[in-house]
């Protein structure tokens, strides 16, 4: 190899290593699932204008580089610039430099370095390094695969410590899962029970194996009387594994919806994955308005106590009726008491009452100690903007159920001004994502005056639906640009609904 070949090899290797800054951001935000770095890379290529052309151009230059080393230098530069939009600078949250991400990057560095060394040793010049550079996102996914089992074993010590600590806890344990309203139900139950008891509750977003273990190790105290856990899942076996050491006495399923449908494929698969929470428990509290859950509950009634909680059916075990910021609670058809709170809490209050029944608590005594229940932040939170406009913040974890609720909430506002919607739409809905977002925009069109669509992910479905319904719509590459435009036109009697927000690794 002559000098120019070594220079090209060095540049290609360096370019690949630098790209770890971007790939690690995608990997961390997608929970270190192998394959997702490549998946998001090609989403940017597919959705952002001209990225598919630039990717094709890179492949052409890669082929030409087999004969011309100077073209390979151009490839090394292009791989740092593409795909356009997925930059090294973060707009939302930055990468947390955890020990896991450091180990992952070391493995990636080793793989890239070995490929470059092999390219020289096998007398391929810089050609192997060239392929690794163009497809460095794929190499990063291989690093994720190689470290997956090691990381699980590495973290088992924290889970074992949490299991031992929880083993000394003598109070009742409640575990909550579902496609929506998990956090809201957890927080609602906490507000009610903490009026009387010392309650341990997992923090927001700490709903996976390591998050739950971390919260137990750091926050569970000897004087806690009740423990509440939120459990999320991206696939089969995760909730069953968590329940094997959390050992809940009461399990709650808030509802089944097409959330994470891209990963789980069907609603039935989502139902099966969520239903793992009932395997080791004695009592199950369910959303009695969900037909999938009601059907599944018939399989549980012979072995477990099942409490159905409803917001529509007055003959359910628990029924909560909402009117004018007040929730009326009925148990077995009998009125018990009322509690103040926003409409978004209706289902969560119903499920919380079901949990208290399962724990043989005096519902009237607990509820009467609560003046008013508050909703969780970023769930239809009403704020005042700097320009006097009313802001409805529902920017967290949007799904078809919460979208409908937000539109109902927006329609309840009376104003002389305009109603704006800022949204990137919904994600992880698999093959049905276009349909769900088109339907969302269609439903929103009867409520809003103008739409601001953010990002390329659902641009086509949202804008097509708004245009079909004659709603003025504008497109912005990211939320900051949309907010900047809105601030230039909004008036103090306008209302703005922020429905969902996507991290910046989404197109």
Describe this structure in words.
The protein is an alpha/beta fold and 507 residues long. Helices cover 48% and strands 15% of the residues. Helix 1 packs parallel to helix 7, helix 3 (36-47) packs across helix 4 and helix 4 packs antiparallel against helix 5 (69-81). The model has no long low-confidence stretch (mean pLDDT 94).
Distance between the termini: 41 Å
Q: From the 3D coordinates, which CATH architecture of the largest domain would you assign?
A: 3-Layer(aba) Sandwich
User: Considering DSSP H and I runs of 4 or more, what fraction of the residues is helical?
Assistant: 40-55%
The gross shape turns out to be: globular
- For this structure, what is the CATH homologous superfamily of the largest domain? Mur-like, catalytic domain
Strand adjacency order, main sheet: 2-3-1-4-5-6-7-8-9
> What proportion strand?
5-15%
CATH topology label of the largest domain: UDP-N-acetylmuramoyl-L-alanine:D-glutamate ligase
Give the biggest beta sheet: 9 strands, mixed
Question: Cα-atom Rg, whole angstroms?
Answer: 26 Å
Give the count of structural domains. Answer: 3
Number of beta strands: 15
Count of DSSP-assigned helices: 20
Report the average pLDDT across residues. 94
Top-tier CATH class of the largest domain: Alpha Beta
Search tags:
single chain; UDP-N-acetylmuramoyl-L-alanine:D-glutamate ligase; 507 residues; Protein-Tyrosine Phosphatase, Chain A; alpha/beta; 48% helix; nine-stranded mixed β-sheet
